[in-house]
Amino acid sequence: MRILHTESSTVMGGQERRVLAESLGMSARGHEVRIAAPSDGALAARARESGLEVIPLSFRRDRLPIAVLGLSRLLRRLRPDVTNSHSSADSWVVALARSLGSDPGALVRSRHISAQVDPGPLHRFLYGQADYLITTGEKVRGDLAESGLFPLARSTSIPSGVDPDRFRPEPERRDGARRSLGIPATATVIGVVAYLREDKGHSVLLRAMPQILEACPDCLLVVVGDGGLRAGLESLATDLGVRSAVRFAGHREDIPDVLAALDIFCLPSVRNEGVPQSLLQAGAAGLPAVSTKVGGIPEAVADEVTGLLVPPDDSGALAGALSRLIRDPEERSRLGRAARGRMRDGYSVERMLDLTERAYEEAVRCAAARRPPGPGRRPAQ
User: Fold this and answer.
1) Domain 2-161+348-370: CATH architecture, name and number where available
2) Model confidence over 15-34: pLDDT tens digits?
3) What is the pTM of this model?
4) What is the DSSP-derived secondary structure letter of residue 53?
5) What is the CATH number of domain 171-346?
């Protein structure tokens, strides 16, 4: 199968990592996979380093006609069986190109976050051009169906996969991992791994820290990730009087080592989540999670089974849940073991790829049924 991914994002967050992992996995299974993305973006660089073919393409909204023309030429040259768009800007370019007569094969729209979509005429046009919808969680899929934008019958939910061999409990690496982060061996450590943007709720977690430190003075928070909010978050930690208990570790690629240093994983998201990869990775590493009831997070964290869930944007509830686990190592261990089992059984990379292959095959069938071939139009393959 010839597969073309389009991605307009230039950062390297969970969505972009999902695109890369899926592309590598499908390529290893014998499919022809290409990624059209901005040449200066992180995804393009990582994909090229991994041996994937990257086609430089700008999806800038201020140059929309040029982007549509460029994509149309690309589609004529590649003749993909499936084109999978991921972000808003590239999805618009693909939809407009199709509406003007270009043939993307089966057009799949992937939706990675839970942000509400206005079901007005513009988005009805956008989603109406797609043959099939893939979401990273059932909540996102259900919301789009309920809004009337996309039928359940032509959609599926495929959560991201996690490699249980790469992400696994490794107590023997704990001391070394802590030294690399400048963390005392005896501290109780909470960690968050996420791009520093408002949706992820880092400020809520920082506001919970004074209450947490009252219960556990030797507790430390490790913030892994970078972004435009870093300076503001560091200032907030100082204003709250907790700066000495917070380590801003910046961007790290050695996430298994980071997780080995932690006792509790926390993702305090306030909005716009699918099924976050960071929670899946932490669960595979045997860590209990404290997170929020946002988007598809309850699909990744079973409340009171693999972790604890609290309302979003509630620093008091977040502090209470974290303090509860800080005080109870046995509960942390129980939740972590259950999380590891849940990830191993339901969230493997192979399962993600199996479901994606089936979804693409179904998308091709849907495209053939919705748009029967006419004169001069190739049949779906």
Assistant:
1) 3-Layer(aba) Sandwich (3.40)
2) 999 999 999 999 999 999 99
3) 0.89
4) E
5) 3.40.50.2000
